[in-house]
Amino acid sequence: MLRDWFLKSKFDEVDMERVEVSVKDIFAVFLKMGAFAFGGVYSMLAFFERELVHKRKWLSHEEFAESVVIGQLTPGAPIVNTGIFIGYTLKKLRGALATVLGQVLPSFVLVLVIAFIYIKYKEIALLKAILRGVGAAVVGLIASVVYNMGGKILKDYKSIVFAVIALICLAVFKINPIVLIIAAALAGVLLYGRTTEWKS
């Protein structure tokens, strides 16, 4: 089934073993990432990859990339959807619930505090300088995620063409991202649907 293909572990390919993880661990890690991973959806992916793939080895690079894809395909906040998929992969429904609670709780509190501070002190030069510096750093974080994911996903000329076409359609022609995702999904079925990997 398609779901089984998405959840299929590829650790054997990279000579890794699944690290045992508890629901408590999942909640604690996502609480930490939710509290300290600033910069928006895509910059947060850099923190996700570092914490879950490199540091704790809960996921392989391939599983992380697939989680990001699923997060983009489903409606709602992509970073939350990605977390839900990761939690479900690690610990089924309890893991998914732990990621949502851990991820959303700190941001809910912090946004309330920051909104209060911003509305009251938004004209202060120091706050403007801080926001400008963080904004510049976010660009670098996003570039890092794009670079790392590109190396894992763009493995043949077809996937490279997909990426270039999507970039042009979004940046130049301003096509709706939902339309691009649906079109890419259909094109993926047509181009990759008969491969051995997809059937397995």
Description:
The chain contains 9 helices and no strands. With 200 residues, the chain is mainly α. Helix 4 (61-73) packs across helix 5. The longest helix is centred in the middle third of the chain and has 44 residues, at 78-121. The protein starts with a helix and ends with a helix.
What does this entry show, briefly?
This protein has helices at residues 2-7, 23-36, 41-55, 61-73, 78-121, 125-153, 157-171, 177-192, 196-199. By secondary structure, the chain is mainly alpha-helical.
Per-chain topology:
Elements: H1 2-7, H2 23-36, H3 41-55, H4 61-73, H5 78-121, H6 125-153, H7 157-171, H8 177-192, H9 196-199
Helix pairs in contact: 2-5, 3-6, 4-5, 7-8
Q: How far apart are the termini?
A: 9 Å
DSSP, total strands: 0
Main pleated-sheet profile? none
Radius of gyration: 19 Å
Shape summary: globular
Mean pLDDT: 81
Show unreliable segments. 1-16
